Amino acid sequence: MIWWWADQSRARAEKAAFVALQEEHDWLTSVRIRHLANFQLCVDVEIVHGGEKFPLAVIYPTTFPDTPPIVLPHGELRLSDHQYGPGGELCLQWRPDNWDPSVTGAMMVESAHGLIVGERPSDGGAAAVPSEHRSSLAGELRFETWRLMVPEGAWASLDGQLPEAVLEVSLTITARRTQRVAHLRSIGAQGNEVWISPQPAPNAPGRRTGFILRTAQDMSVLALHVGGEFDDLAKRVPELASLLERPEWPFIIVLEKTGRKTAFDIVRSKAGHPFLVPYRIVEEEELARRSASNRESVSRNRVAIVGCGSIGSKIAASLARAGVRKFLLVDEDIFLTGNLVRNELDAWAIGWHKVDALADRIGQIVTDTEIDTRRIALGSQTSALGMESTLESIGECDLIVDATANPTSFNLCAGAARRHRKPMIWASVFGGGIGGIIARARPDKDPPPLVTRNQIATWCDDHETPWQSETGNAYEMNRGDEPPFIADDADVSVIAAHTTRLALDILQGGETTFPHSAYAIGLKKAWIFEAPFDTWPIDLQPTGTWEEPASEHDDQDIATLMSELLDENPL
Description:
This protein is α/β, with parallel strands linked by helices. The protein has 14 helices and 23 strands.
């Protein structure tokens, strides 16, 4: 769409504004309107100040008047400190962040004139115009393709070290096309580190050995180097001479007493000389509190995730972000390409067991994890010993999450929860993604899991159950001649997110925020759901008893029972 054709009155008004501006001010000596190759309007103007001429181009973008005109000099000139590099756009009074569509191109030229006059006072000196530019870290790094990420606390670990020192460091490096990001992982030789990064390590990274050069000397000869060949590096910076004698040249971080910090990767040029690749140091601040969860309480608990498919994988990742560090992951499946459509995992996991890939995924989110994995499906054809061991491990967890939607698995998890008196949560997505059900069973607060499930089934029967899948695919639902409903990642994510909130409510302890222990959540207008996000609480009746904890017995009680059971006296 050509804006000046679609809004011809605005185009005429823009031209009239320039004519009026030139008639009113003698500093505007020339105005010429032309079009560029793509039919963009361009107004060439000339501003005169202090006997100097400033030719500018005012280019109207195709998105005008929703975005401002672009004002820039002719040629690769640096006219102002408020400019995006030589020949670049001037940063004026009106910018994309405060743009008003009523502002004209002529008003932009007035702003440019004010900037030129402000930086060039009549006495011939230099002056600075106050900046309203608010930069962000992301904006500053937009064109910094080589970066070194330094976690909070790394530099502080050097406070007790010698002022003149060379310390070994380890780094991991990730690459994306022409960009490189190095991550500082530790300071100090292996086994004798003075600092180890508390942050998750990037997946499948390159590894690099480097050194911190801590010095009170002025290292400008190195710090101000723009990158490229540095033939006499060892001579100019003697502190690096011994490091350059190594077969592999190192990554260097220079910390000067003045506080200046610079980083370079030293590689060999084609001629065999040191070639410096400068890295922009990005110091990460301490992670802000970004979760409403009581992380200290949550981190003490161990959670069993039974079923690491679409729902289970999402729940596990969300719980890790909320503070859970101890997991038992149970699933026998292999992650296949078809699982990418709804699972938390990505292409790196294809071909791996889901439990192993999910354990790696959690390790990419948080550190200090304790994760056990069991490549087994509850109720499958496996050894009785392996099944018993898995069920006992599940029962020893502080919370059991069944995300299999499999009756056999549910029954076994329910038995473990009842025997060990542990809370249990489960979730399922209705065929076609029309909604789902989430539920919990807490010892002595809710009916036992099997009783709870039966009450939910009765509740569903009372409302009929037309969502039953006829395709054999739990995520699809045939609708006769109409297109089938298919649950996508968004549908599964909604149910998984609600299940996670239910889990955190238990893990944090205290008064629950959920007045009911089971909910039917609608995602489409179907069955009883009047609209997406139509939620139906399910009332549970306090029937059934949880397993009573075994009372303590002395040796005589045990001996008496064994004598009744065994043919021989054990004692």
